[in-house]
Specification:
Layout lengths: L1 E7 L12 H13 L3 E7 L2 H11 L4 E6 L8 H10 L4 E5 L16 E4 L4 H13 L14
């Protein structure tokens, strides 16, 4: 099953997926250890983010991590779309300069703010925990 990662493209200095290649590799590897796949999509507008969120419903996606970006236009549309999702999701603000909490507080499990690309790593850990797959990340288990 899949975890969708929807990133907001922030300029020419970014990698094609909106995230550094090393971070994407880390996300893919951690998801694979849990028997899951990761689908990363970089969006260039709020409209494209809404389209990606809508397409996530009913296509085998189990969890969504998304960055609404810094674009002010259509932010309420993103929030409304998140509120209608039948999937758990986490709003990731990779850049702390953007506005926090679009209108999605009712739909998102959490908001991760200002950790850059590592916010997606944190979000994936939360997603795996939520889906019951957090044990795959621990090589050593301590019993109580």
């Amino acid at each position: 099953m899949s975890i969708a990662i929807i990133t907001a493209h922030r300029g020419l200095a970014e990698q094609p997926a909106g995230l550094p290649r090393e971070v994407v590799s880390q996300l893919v590897e951690r998801a694979a250890q849990a028997g899951r796949t990761v689908a990363v999509r970089a969006c260039s507008s709020a409209t494209e983010i809404v389209d990606c969120l809508r397409q996530s419903n009913g296509n085998g996606t189990e969890f969504v991590l998304f960055d609404p970006g810094v674009e002010g236009l259509s932010r309420s549309a993103i929030g409304a779309c998140v509120a209608r999702l039948d999937l758990p999701c986490i709003e990731v603000h990779a850049n702390a300069d953007g506005p926090v909490g679009i209108d999605s507080a009712a739909g998102a499990l959490s908001v991760i703010d200002g950790y850059g690309a590592q916010g997606y790593v944190l979000g994936l850990s939360i997603a795996l925990e939520y889906l019951g797959d957090a044990e795959c990340e621990n090589a050593i288990h301590v019993g109580t």
